[in-house]
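Quiz preparation item.
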């Protein structure tokens, strides 16, 4: 493995999610902060392992001078503590930052990933409203993957098959159980697979809009981000439901990571400071562990998460009273 601390100046953005861990490198000297490298990895329930694999690929595939690091996603605190990130941001801010960097006219962002979905409403480049669905799997990438597998359809062919439908059937989409039951019923009635897939796309879009967009005005320009944006059937279903074009950005699958890198660059340029990132070689070779326990210091009984690197305590989070942090593990 080739490891280097010097090379092409870049900013590293990382989005650690429950389904995927995404890493990007943005050009550190180009004023447009163009993307020079990206990787979409399956988290597979092991975010630390996925993160270290991604960092190893960065080391193997180029020589880099990492000037700053930003993290986002459900595992942002974990990744941020492990690497010494310069900024740790929520997914709403990261996705909005990436979209506005791509097109300053964006007013609506639809983001659907493997396990959750988000709606972000912007006005004049500022987030004014958002909604997230993290409870029900209906309309997320994992549900679409499951249904494609059940129908014997490769997920990469899902969108094209849905687009070929001439008579989409209506599928109940408010619940994954009802949707699957309804799809089986339509199959038993002899409905074609393309019509069922197109109906499923429409049902998922109705579910998204009913749950997240109620009372919100979805103005153009509309961006569709997240892994599900690769599904052309879902894109068309959104366009039909919204009666306006829906745009899929070039790097739709890693927009959270792009936003994290942009935010890190902005933070460091504003402060004229040096990155806190402790080095690519060290990050690849270090021994990182995390543990979770229930704190008994007060009646809150908070679930505390800790991260350790090479036997040294780095950080903890989850405390609501503030007593956990410096006195860890007791």
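Solution:
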């Amino acid at each position: 493995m080739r490891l280097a601390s010097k090379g092409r100046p870049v900013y590293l953005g990382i989005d650690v999610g429950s389904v995927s861990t995404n890493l990007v490198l943005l050009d550190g000297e180009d004023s447009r902060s163009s993307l020079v490298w990206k990787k979409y990895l399956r988290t597979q329930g092991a975010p630390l392992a996925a993160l270290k694999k991604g960092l190893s690929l960065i080391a193997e595939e180029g020589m880099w001078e990492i000037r700053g690091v930003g993290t986002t996603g459900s595992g942002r605190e974990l990744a941020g503590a492990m690497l010494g990130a310069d900024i740790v941001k929520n997914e709403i801010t990261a996705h909005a930052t990436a979209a506005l960097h791509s097109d300053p006219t964006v007013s609506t962002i639809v983001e659907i990933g493997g396990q959750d979905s988000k709606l972000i409403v912007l006005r004049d480049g500022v987030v004014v409203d958002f909604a997230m669905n993290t409870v029900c799997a209906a309309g997320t990438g994992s549900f679409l993957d499951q249904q494609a597998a059940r129908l014997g359809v490769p997920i990469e062919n899902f969108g094209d098959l849905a687009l070929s439908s001439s008579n989409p059937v209506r599928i109940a989409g408010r619940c994954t159980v009802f949707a699957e039951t309804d799809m089986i019923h339509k199959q038993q009635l002899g409905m074609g697979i393309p019509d069922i897939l197109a109906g499923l796309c429409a049902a998922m879009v109705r579910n998204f809009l009913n749950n997240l967009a109620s009372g919100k005005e979805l103005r153009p320009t509309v961006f569709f981000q997240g892994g599900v944006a690769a599904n052309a059937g879902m894109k068309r279903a959104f366009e039909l439901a919204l009666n306006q074009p829906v745009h899929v950005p070039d790097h739709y699958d890693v927009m959270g990571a792009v936003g994290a890198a942009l935010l890190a660059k902005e933070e460091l340029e504003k402060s004229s400071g040096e990155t806190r990132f402790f080095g690519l070689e060290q990050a690849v070779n270090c021994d990182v562990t995390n543990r979770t326990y229930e704190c008994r210091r007060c009646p809150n009984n908070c679930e505390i998460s800790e991260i350790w690197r090479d036997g040294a305590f780095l950080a903890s989070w989850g405390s609501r009273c503030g007593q956990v942090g410096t006195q860890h593990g007791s």
